[in-house]
Amino acid sequence: MIRDITLGQYYPGDSFIHRLDPRLKIIAVLVFIVALFITSEFYGFIFTAVYLAVVIIISKVPPRFILRGMKPVLLILICTFIINIFVIKGGDVIFKLGFLSIEQNGIKMAVFLVTRLVMLIIGSSMLTFTTKPMMLTDGLESLMNPLKKVGVPSHELAMMMSIALRFIPTLLEETDKIMKAQLARGADFETGSIVKRAKGLIPILIPLFISAFRRADELAMAMEARCYRGGENRTRMNALKFSIRDLVAGAVTVLMAAGIVITKIAM
Amino acid sequence: MENIIQIRDVTFDYHRNSEDEVTIRALNHVSLDIEKGSFTAVIGVNGSGKSTLAKHLNGLVLPTEGEVVVCGFNTKDNETLWEVRRKVGMVFQNPDNQMVSAVVEDDVAFGPENLGIPPQEIRARVDMALQSVGMYDFRKKAPHMLSGGQKQRVAIAGVVAMLPECIVFDEPTAMLDPRGRKEVLDIIHKLNKEDGKTIVLITHFMDEVVDADKVVVMDNGHIIMEGKPKEIFVRNEELHKAGLDVPFAAELGSRLRKRGIEIPDNIIFMEELADYIAENAGSAKNL
Ligand SMILES: Nc1ncnc2c1ncn2[C@@H]1O[C@H](COP(=O)(O)OP(=O)(O)OP(=O)(O)O)[C@@H](O)[C@H]1O
Ligand SMILES: [Mg+2]
Q1: What is the C-alpha separation between B115 and B117, in angstroms, rounded?
Q2: In a 3-state reduction of DSSP, which class is residue B13?
Q3: What separation in angstroms does the CA of A33 have from each of A47, A119, B267?
Q4: Which of these, B204, B248, B211, B217, lies nearest to B229 by C-alpha position?
Q5: Which residues are within 5 Å of ligand 2 (an ion), measured at CB?
Q6: What is the whole-number distance in angstroms between the Cα of residue B204 and the centre of ligand 2?
Q7: Residue nearest to atom 11 of ligand 1 (CA)
């Protein structure tokens, strides 16, 4: 049950997008998000939508896979839509029932915001769909490296993230096991009030944390035994390389952003 | 033969916590030489100090008294500690808790990366190490998709990729099913025979001990016996006293002897015992 949670899922592939330098992809996603927020009119979305569509097509990630990733946020999308449709006023009244009314601007705004959110979510999940977790943390580490001078422990942060990613499946498996063990002892996680259910989690969390700390202790020892001593003088098997491919992709991203800025100024 | 590791009169105390006066003496004046290229097995009941001894071999813990010298480097010397850890690799009991990376080949690369080796060479070493444990085809897999034995083989590859001279195994098969145990043991023996690695194997399974060059028996922080398997396993009274079993063949031999059947006491292997009984079946029947 718990294993269905898909966190930062990777869709294995060998496409142009998969092979891009993770640093470029991270920056491109940031640019994409900023572009979405600069856009204030519907037609501005043409640029981001086309950009996103092209990325999806090239990446060969099946749309079904992408839509499945949207499921957990569906509720947020629906809420956003409903709240905006009723709260934003202005324009022709389309529907009226007592104090509730839907007006033209409300519909516009609701569609606009949901479109933005959907693109935001799909855009950023394209990063995790097409980038191996390892590469992602390597990319983040490399991007944060200049911040080392002001005391940001970039290597340690990246290491922490990759260890966390490594242990997510292990701990999920363990949670499953503990839950089954407690269920066998008559625990009940499904019924009762929220408070009762929250209390029911305690017998799961305590053994889980104890085991996680024991694992951490052993892992630290194993890492030390394998000569780990921080990021200094460390080399990487797959060093990140910025290639012509990345240059092209970067240029396209810049064009998309420029398109949005220019239309905004022109309007 | 030259000694790759020398343990000289080592005593080690665990402190419960820093203020506490209570200490646990895990090792008590232990001395041991590990010969280069040899296969040493360490046995002893729970809490007898085996893991503590193992952690001394690559400076994961430092002796309270006495010293450990690895390839001429004292583990107390901070300057050469990393050289010691490179020369003496270590594989632990729980394969899950010694893997750092979510991809097999990246995990194997972890050690060489820490040594600051150029990328192409890391690649070559990772491929070599994965091939030597028969896990090359799994190099792109996630560790949690593998069986226990396969995970432990990946952990071994992670150590092999650092090109150590000696590998210490702390109960590497304790969490594995019989098939996983066999896979791992075969690799340990191969590393010793074919690649000439010095092996120290800590184990609870007596059958894993019989083909070692030397057996070390620990009890309560002391080394109480040391010698060839055949020399050790004839002393089954003493072993029983230390809470240990003897290998199945040796135990059976000794019980048969007690019932008056002539079985030489230097038989500790199953094969040997079977051969002997087969040869003497005629006379045994008469008994
Ligand atoms: N971190 C620690 N802090 C305090 N005492 C410890 C610690 N680790 C081990 N000990 C104690 O030191 C003694 C030797 O422990 P050690 O782990 O070396 O035994 P072992 O032979 O490896 O046992 P096992 O077969 O259970 O692995 C035991 O009495 C143990 O309780
Ligand atoms: Mg132990």
Answers
A1: 6
A2: strand
A3: 12, 9, 75
A4: B211
A5: B 51
A6: 10
A7: B26
CB B218 within 8 A of CB B230: no
Q: Which residues of B touch A (CB under 8 A)?
A: 55, 58, 60, 82, 85-86, 89-90, 92, 94, 96-103, 105-106, 109-119, 122-123, 126, 142-144, 158-159, 162
Query: Is the CB of A162 less than 8 angstroms away from the CB of B92?
Result: no
Domain ranges, ordered by start, for chain A: 2-266
State phi, psi for B268 to the nearest 5 degrees. -125, -15
Q: Are B89 and B166 in contact (CB under 8 A)?
A: yes
Contact B110 A226 (CB under 8 A): yes
ipTM score here?
0.89
pLDDT confidence of A3, banded at 50, 70, 90? Answer: very low
Domain B3-246 has CATH 3.40.50.880: no
CA distance B114 to chain A (A): 5
Asked if B89 contacts B162 with a C-beta cutoff of 8 angstroms, the reply is yes
CA B84 to chain CA mean position, Å: 18
The reported pTM is: 0.84
Taking the domains of chain B in order of start, what are their residue ranges?
Answer: 3-246, 247-287
Condensed to tens digits (0 to 9), the pLDDT of residues B89-109 reads 999 999 999 999 988 999 999
